[in-house]
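Retro notes
What went well: the complex prediction finally ran end to end.
Inputs used:
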Amino acid sequence: MKLYLLIPFLPLAAFIINILLGKEVLRNKAHWPSCLAIIGSFIISVITLFDVMNGKIINEDLYTWIVSGKFKVSVGFLIDQLTAVMLIVVTCVGSLIHIYSIGYMHGDKGYYRFFSYLSLFTFSMLMLVTANNFLQLYFGWEGVGVCSYFLIGFWYQKRAAADAGKKAFIVNRFGDFGFAIGIFMIFLTFGTIHYAPVFEGVKEYVGHTVNFLGWEVDLLTLIALLLFCGAIGKSAQMPLHVWLPDAMEGPTPVSALIHAATMVTAGVFLVARCNAIFGLSPVAMNVVAIVGGITSVFAATIACVQNDIKRIIAYSTLSHLGMMFVACGVGAFAAGVFHLYTHAFFKALLFLGAGSVIHAVGHNDVQRMGGLRKYMPITYATMFIAALSAGGIPGLAGFFSKDEIVWSAYAAHTGVGNFVWLLMTSIAFFTPFYSFRMMFLAFHGKFRGTHHEQHHLHESPKVMTIPLILLAVGAFAGGWVGIPSVLGGGAHFAHFLEPVVGHPDFHGTHAEEFRIMGTSTTIAIIGLVLAFIFYISKTYIPAKLAKDYNIPYRILFNKYYFDELYDSILVKPTMWSARKILVGFTDAKIIEGVVNGVPKLIGLFSGRLRRIQTGLAHHYGIFMTAGAFFIILYMLFWR
Amino acid sequence: MVPLSWYMLLSLAVFTIGVFGFLTRRNVILMFMSIELMLNAVNINLIAISHYMQDLRGQILAFFVIVVAAAEAAIGLAIVIALFRNRATAHVDEVQEMKG
């Protein structure tokens, strides 16, 4: 019995049970199969983690999936250090979010549907991380994509939710298109799409070029960039970031699980998994770092002015995902994965806390909240820890991972490295600023909603607060596994991942490292203090700033007008051509022309022909006689 | 001894009368009789040639033709009776339900 197989297949079983029996039999007990399955997966993941720690790496093909000429793919599983970390993140955070959902989704009409999708999502995500070949990865990749679509549009009666689901799915098509071509390129180059032979054989192709759309380009750079296309889509980096903020239309646990902790980090996982390919292409690495860096600053600036509590956190997610890519881009894959791991805790916690707030207040607008800490102390305390952790305040999980990234960017000592280091240092200011802006607006001061709303304020039930507390423990202490050696820790996390992602070749003295750490920490505290001044002590400042710097404020508030830009250059022309060309011409003229034309032609022809059928017997007689006459004539004279 | 060609001329004459009768008459009974004439013209031919070739198979075939003609006459007359009961007519021009 292969125990690790249960990790993905328990949630699949829960999905099947729920989708078949949920509506009629389980009803409001539909959470049982899903929760038990993912907790089971979590326990096995922990066992697997210990196995991996003891050096037991699993890489085996179970079943030959597709054979077609040279192309051969198996269903196979690879459980190494990287996968083990991802398994823990997905199942641990996933379990807590599942439990939280029991309270959050209580009484919803689609209760069983919600848990079915959640289990299907978990299954897909686990398949994604445990795959040992690119096709199975792609299967999981698309599986989580479709579950994301289902869950964003979970309240499909709401127009905005249905649209957001479609948007997420369609925007991801752009990235996945490149990703698919990347996999084809890998097959063409290596003749296989299994990880092990690809990553081992990759060195032989350094410097090879290939003709792509008429250009001679470096083969590995091309493959890496095509794979990164997929990562851009799934991890919502610029320019395909537009779907993630809209995805907040889904239920909040979904935002926490899919759009913060797990699915969106799949892009980072992909880059880390393919570090052998990326590492050999400096161009691709620079692209990864720059895209990540720009996205993170771009999103962080937007987050500073948004009012929807979930969108603030969504932009924060974009920003943090960008940081992970920065780490990967400068070669510190372990730092990227470390941030992925800590981010999963504090970001899921921020989202679940926000969900708890929304549950109590009934809307998302932080401007109409305030003073909530009296009503919801547990939510407040846990979210405060998450915000501190996200903001990179020393001692908490987020600090160690963020610091690792900042240091890696600096220690890379390259032009791009320095550039992204500057960006990361500015992020160190923005992250605590917008996190605490949200905290102060929502939890401090006086309540700014209606009386009716105030009357309704309450702390969430235990089933929701206990996951918050457990996540807070993770957000607080989760980073302690990766304390850098300069602070007296063992950097265990990076050492653990070293067999998979290698060790970056960084040089720097401890003094330098302290200086970098000190700078970013000081900046982080400045951000925090500024948020305190702006939103607690001198609350008139933000409004004044918004008025004085109206144009930049409007640009930020409207998210740099990206949606409007895409709307006018992509959506509108597509809709126009669909209406005018596809509907108006292809469909109306060509398709309907053929479909209606064929019967019309037959009708025309047979309308003439049927006149022969006069119904008069002697006409038939004449035809028969004439026919016989001509046949005889033919037989006698022509044959 | 009557030469074969005479028989065949007789057959031809009878067959032609049958064809013209079938085409010109409108009464169902008369059309039937014309068809019988055609069949019998064929029979004459078969038997004459059978005799001429000293091969009995032609005569056997003639019996088959007679049997088929009898069956056809039985069914045909039944149809005529059914028609007459429904329409009180034996005139084919008045029956054209199958007109296209």
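What we learned: The radius of gyration of chain B is 17 Å.
What to try next: split runs per interface for comparison.
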